[in-house]
Amino acid sequence: MNSPVDRARNILVVASEEGGAELLSSMIKAKANKNYFFCMEEPATKIFAGKIRRMDLVDLDFINSNRRSIDLVLTSTSFISDHERRAISLAKKNKVKVASVLDHWIGYRQRFLPREMWKNIPVTWMNQLPDEVWVADRSAFEIVQKEKFPMNKIFRTNNQYLDDMSLLFENEENRKKGPIIKPKNDIKILYISEPVSEEARLMHADPKFRGFTEVDIVKAILQFLLENYKMTNLKFRFRLSPNDPPDKYDKLITGVSQIEKSASRNLIEDLLWANTVLGIESPDLVVALAAGKQVFSWQPETTLQKTCLPHKAIRHIGALNAEFAEKLELLVNPPPDPVEPLQDDRRDWQKRAPPRYPR
Predict the structure, then answer these.
(1) Which of 9, 256, 288, 346 stands 20 to 30 A from 282 (CA)?
(2) Closest-CA residue to 195 (of 159, 160, 242)
(3) How many Å apart are CA 114 and CA 247, to the nearest integer?
(4) Helix, strand or coil, per DSSP, at residue 207
(5) Domain span holding position 235
(6) pLDDT tens per residue, range 90-147
(7) Nearest Cα residue to 203 out of 328, 308, 97
């Protein structure tokens, strides 16, 4: 399948946030026979550096000074950062072709608009779009249709990041495969933390706009562990968002033996550890699906907004309670297949029995 880079030679790549950087960097790595220049913000810089050996780093002014030699400005999209929005504006001003690749399944219009337009999106919002908008799956394509994007700007591409992660997980799982016969498995839950309150603050000027924060989720997990204390094989690992400070939940979880923080920068390592994944609507939940994990999405009862994940294989649960704990136990340690009972057919036994001799 074609991608935005196929028809260009000299390409400026612009990215800032994690989700878009993962998708865009995998796409670039698969199309290495181009001249790339990179204009990055963290955490995108680290993500790209983990996949691409040599990066020619420049700033956004590179568009102004090299408008005649750049064939394409290729961006991810962001909520929090204006980095990509500024790149799109500069490219259009300098008449350089610009394309953006959408990740996730939420807030597509807002990704292209200045924050001051979010509350009352003007009828002229399409003027802020790049020349092309690329979507990486059918669900994203359906969303841009519903949100009335001009379809002559929309193009489909494959999700190279998801393809790469599926293959990498399969290879690592085969390499680290343990014995076939195992004792009772621990229920190992990887919790994917998301900066819900920060996103709500930026989008709606209210950290509790959704009816809860990520801290409420952690408190609910602690309560879940307390109520199911007899399940000694129940373990959590917290994977923080790149935007989270490392000590974000320390005051809550320090001393809780059933919770550990992920020390890995690599999602694959955490997925190899886990057999179950819990989150809200992070794209990492979709990666976990591709890795064959049991994936659950949960929000507290106070929530005012549904999750945006369209994937039917992600199970949406109503509560972290004893019923959920039992479900986890059955998923991770299913009962053995029932042994077919021996047939006690007397007529058949008589046919096979040795003859009785007279005395």
Answers:
(1) 256
(2) 242
(3) 32
(4) coil
(5) 162-332
(6) 999 999 999 999 998 988 999 999 988 988 899 999 999 999 999 999 999 999 999 9
(7) 308
pLDDT per residue over 307-333, tens digit each? 888 888 999 998 999 899 988 988 888
Beta carbons within 10 angstroms of residue 326's beta carbon: 12
User: In whole angstroms, how far apart are CA 68 and each of 62, 63, 214?
Assistant: 11, 9, 46
Position 327 in a domain:
yes
Task: Kindly report the backbone phi and psi dihedral angles of residue 179, in degrees, each rounded to the nearest multiple of 5, phi listed first.
Answer: -65, 155
- Last residue of one domain, picked from the residues 158, 193, 209: 158
User: Is residue 269 in a domain?
Assistant: yes
Contact 133, 99 (CB under 8 A): yes
**Spatial contact of 272 and 173, defined as CB atoms under 8 Å apart:** yes
CA gap 252, 247 in Å, rounded: 10
Digit-coded pLDDT (tens) for 63-94: 999 999 999 999 999 988 999 999 999 999 99
- Which residues pair with residue 192 across a beta bridge? 239
* Rounded Cα gap, residues 48 and 202, in angstroms: 26
What torsion do the CA atoms of 135, 280, 169, 259 make, to the nearest 10 degrees?
160
Number of domains in the chain: 2
Cα separations in angstroms, 128 against 39, 114, 121, 178, 244: 20, 9, 11, 52, 30
Rg, Å, the chain Cα set = 26
pLDDT (tens digit per residue) in 196-218 = 998 888 778 899 999 999 999 99
Show the beta-strand stretches assigned E in the chain: 10-15, 35-40, 72-75, 98-101, 132-135, 154-156, 187-192, 234-239, 259-261, 276-279, 294-297, 315-316
Q: Is the same domain home to 242 and 142? A: no
142 and 211 together in one domain: no
> Whats the size of the chain, residue-wise?
359
Of the three residues 158, 179, 209, the one that is the final residue of a domain is 158
pLDDT score for 343: 53
Query: Per the domain annotation, does 28 fall within a domain?
Result: yes
Instruction: State pTM to two decimals.
Output: 0.83
What is the distance between the alpha carbons of residues 80 and 286, in angstroms, rounded to a whole number?
22
Return the minimum-mean-pLDDT range out of 181-190, 278-287, 295-304: 181-190
